[in-house]
Amino acid sequence: MDGAARAADAATRHLGLDLGGTNLKWAVLSAAADGTWEAVARDQQPTRVVEDSDAVPDSIVDQFCELALAAMRAWGPIVSVGVGVPGLYDPETGRTRFLPNVPGPWAGHPVGEPIAAATGLPTALINDARAFGLAELRLGAARGASSMVGLTLGTGIGGALVIGGRLVMGHDGTAGEMGHQTIDPDGPWCGCGNRGCVEAFARADQVAAACGTATAEEAVRAARKGDARALRGLADVGRYLGIGLANMINVASPDVIVLGGGMAAAGELLFGPIRAEIERRATMTDIDQVRLVPAELGVWAGAYGAAVHGAERAGLA
Ligand SMILES: [Zn+2]
User: Fold this and answer.
1) Confidence class for position 7, pLDDT limits 50, 70, 90
2) Which of 38, 57, 69, 311 has CB atoms 3.0–4.6 Å from 109's, for a disulfide?
3) What's the pLDDT score for residue 9?
4) Distance from the CA of 191 to the center of ligand 1, in angstroms?
């Protein structure tokens, strides 16, 4: 048996589920003995809408159980499950605490337990931005990085922090919330209840406001066409993101910074101002050694990272 065949024999398969208010995504990843990860299958389906918002959490968990069982039949044997959730959760009980953008009473709602019971597999929850970071670390733009900072730029600003090749979770899975670092003590209010957070300046609706457009996507299109206000708006947003990232460089000295989410599509129009602000403020380290790169895994990063987390948390990868 040659080396490749042995590695394939030793590979294990892991299911990742990604909870979204619009779609539920899933992915099956294969983990080889040498630590490399590969996507085997993935798909998504619309989140089942039920009229009664009190019934939404149970409906979504049921849908996940059905998805998981179908994936196990088609792509098994699968040995672990991870679930990415867009908000806060209790890692010990596998219950959600707060999902700001999904209807229904999610406080204390069991998610990990019913999925573990339906599948018979170890099941762990992870925040979706942390899942994004973990996916980019293991099989995306930050492969092989020792330390990494990841930011998702969208409706909110999610973050992930990697030190020593491991995702940092903190005691409750909230480590890496870089979007909520204060960069202006008297700045605008943030959805988190604090004021002057990075997110309060750089989330999608603020980008649109800064650029004089209806949406962030429109802002990027206008800037590409050379619209002066949109270019100025993106430069301002980049400046705020750069301040937050310069702080993170001083804290964590990352070798890679990965930017994902819809706004990352702005490319150099945003990356340029970010880099300039980092150069102005992060003076303790040689920033030529810090790579600033776009994410590689797109909308699948959440499901991939959930699969990796489920496996690592169960001690299976
Ligand atoms: Zn905040």
Assistant:
1) very low
2) 57
3) 58
4) 6
Tokens at 94, concatenated? 């596998």
Q: pLDDT tens for residues 131-155?
A: 999 999 999 999 999 999 999 999 9
CA of 171 to the centre of ligand 1 (A): 19
Distance 105 CA to ligand 1 centre (A): 22
Q: How far is the CA of 87 from the centre of ligand 1 (A)?
A: 13
- 203 C-alpha vs ligand 1 centroid, how far in Å? 10
Q: What CATH number should be reported for the domain holding residue 24? A: 3.30.420.40
Domain match, 93 and 182 both: no
Q: How many Å lie between the centroid of ligand 1 and the Cα of residue 261? A: 18
Range of the domain at 246: 145-295
- Check pLDDT > 50 for residue 3: no
pTM of the model: 0.94
